[in-house]
Design a protein that fits this description.
- The chain is α+β, with helices and mostly antiparallel strands.
- The chain has a single domain, classed as Acetoacetate decarboxylase-like (Beta Barrel), CATH 2.40.400.
- The chain is 20% helix and 42% strand.
- It is built from 7 helices and 19 strands.
- It has a 19-stranded mixed sheet that branches.
- α5 packs across α6.
- The longest helix has 28 residues.
- The radius of gyration is 23 Å and the shape is globular.
C-alpha cells in the first residue's frame, strides 16, 4: 500500500463527487422540467437584472388618459393573475406593428430586456352599459389569457400604448366582439384549477398545447384601492393596463381604453411560472425556447372582484 497515493485518490474522488453533486443541484434548481418552477434559484439560473420590475419610471414618455368615462359598452368582473416578466428586447421589437416602437429607456439597469404582461383568469357577471339606467346583465362568463407589451409608442410620439399580442378565450361570442378592437382574439380550451393552468386547441388531429402555468399567492389580501400603495408596483401595473390599448385588425391600428374599478376588489401578491408550448403567432418561433416565463421581483398579483368597463367601438374609433 502507498498511503500517499491512496490519499491523492481519495482527494480526487471527493473532488469529482463534489463537482457531480454541484451539477445535479444546478439541474434540479434550474431545469424547469425537473423541479417546481418557483424552487428555482433565480440568481443562479438567470442574470439578476432580468428579474427586476420595469415600470413607468424606467421609460421615456407618459400614459395616454382615456377620452372619458364609459357610458356605452360592456363590463365584467375579473378574477385572475397578472404577471410581469422580462424578455429580450430584440424578440419583443420583432412583434411590433409598423409605425410603432418600444419607448426609449430612462434607466440603464436592464438595457437588453423589455417587460411583457401575461394575464390569466375568468371574466364573470358580464353586463351591457348604456348612457341611461343601470348596467343590464348579459350572463357572459368566460376564461381568458392576454399577452401584451407595455410602453409602446407611435413613432415620433411620446404616449404609451399597451400592445395586445394575443388573447385566447373559450367564448365564441367574446371572440367575435373583440374583432372590432383588434385584440387578436382566438378561441381555445382553457383550464384553471387552483395553482395550475393550461391552454390548448383541439382538432381532428389531436390536442395542441399552447401554454402551461403554475401559480401561488400569499395569504394576505388587501382591499383593491389600498393595494395601490401597499403592494409594490401594483399602481404601475394598473396604470399600464388602463393606458391606451393598441390592437390591430386588417392592417389597421385601433386604440381603446379599459376602465378598472377596484372598489370591491381584493389583491394579493403572487408567484407565477408559464411555459409556452407553441408560438402564439408569427414572429414568435423563438419564444417557447425562452420559457419558462417567471415573474420578476414584485411583478405578479392575483386580483379578484375587479370590475372593468370597455367603451363600444365605433363610435368613436380612437385613431392610433
Amino acid at each position: 500500500m502507498n498511503p500517499k497515493r491512496d490519499t491523492v485518490r481519495v482527494i480526487a474522488f471527493m473532488s469529482t463527487a463534489a463537482a457531480a453533486l454541484t451539477v445535479i443541484v444546478i439541474l434540479f434548481l434550474c431545469w424547469p422540467q425537473l423541479c417546481w418552477p418557483r424552487l428555482c434559484w433565480h440568481q443562479l439560473c438567470w442574470p439578476p437584472w432580468e428579474l427586476e420590475f420595469l415600470g413607468e419610471a424606467d421609460f421615456d414618455g407618459q400614459p395616454i388618459p382615456p377620452p372619458g368615462p364609459v357610458t356605452t359598452g360592456g363590463q365584467a368582473t375579473y378574477i385572475g393573475v397578472m404577471t410581469f416578466t422580462n424578455i429580450n428586447r430584440d424578440r419583443v421589437v420583432e412583434l411590433l406593428p409598423s409605425g410603432f416602437q418600444l419607448a426609449p429607456r430612462k434607466t440603464t439597469r436592464t438595457p437588453n430586456v423589455h417587460p411583457v404582461i401575461l394575464l390569466f383568469g375568468d371574466q364573470t357577471d358580464g353586463a351591457s352599459v348604456f348612457p341611461v339606467g343601470p348596467p343590464q346583465p348579459s350572463g357572459v362568463h368566460y376564461s381568458e389569457m392576454i399577452l401584451a407589451v407595455p410602453f409602446v409608442q407611435k413613432t415620433g410620439g411620446s404616449g404609451w400604448h399597451t400592445y395586445i399580442i394575443r388573447m385566447y378565450l373559450d367564448n365564441a361570442g367574446a371572440v367575435v366582439a373583440g374583432e372590432a378592437f383588434g385584440y387578436q382574439k382566438e378561441p381555445a380550451w382553457i383550464e384553471w384549477t387552483g395553482d395550475y393552468a393550461r391552454i390548448w386547441k383541439s382538432s381532428l388531429l389531436g390536442d395542441q398545447d399552447l401554454l402551461e402555468g403554475n401559480f401561488s399567492w400569499g395569504a394576505q389580501w388587501y382591499d383593491g384601492n389600498d393595494a395601490l400603495t401597499t403592494i409594490p408596483n401594483f399602481q404601475d401595473m394598473v396604470n399600464i393596463m388602463t393606458t391606451r390599448l393598441l390592437g390591430r385588425t386588417g392592417g389597421n391600428s385601433i386604440c381603446s381604453h379599459f376602465e378598472w374599478n377596484l372598489d370591491q376588489a381584493k389583491v394579493a401578491r403572487a408567484e407565477t411560472s408559464y411555459t409556452m408550448k407553441t408560438p402564439f403567432r408569427s414572429g414568435m418561433s423563438a419564444w417557447p425556447g425562452l420559457s419558462p416565463f417567471e415573474n420578476v421581483k414584485d411583478g405578479a398579483v392575483v386580483v379578484r372582484g375587479m370590475r372593468w368597463s370597455l367603451a363600444t367601438l365605433p363610435p368613436p374609433i380612437i385613431p392610433c
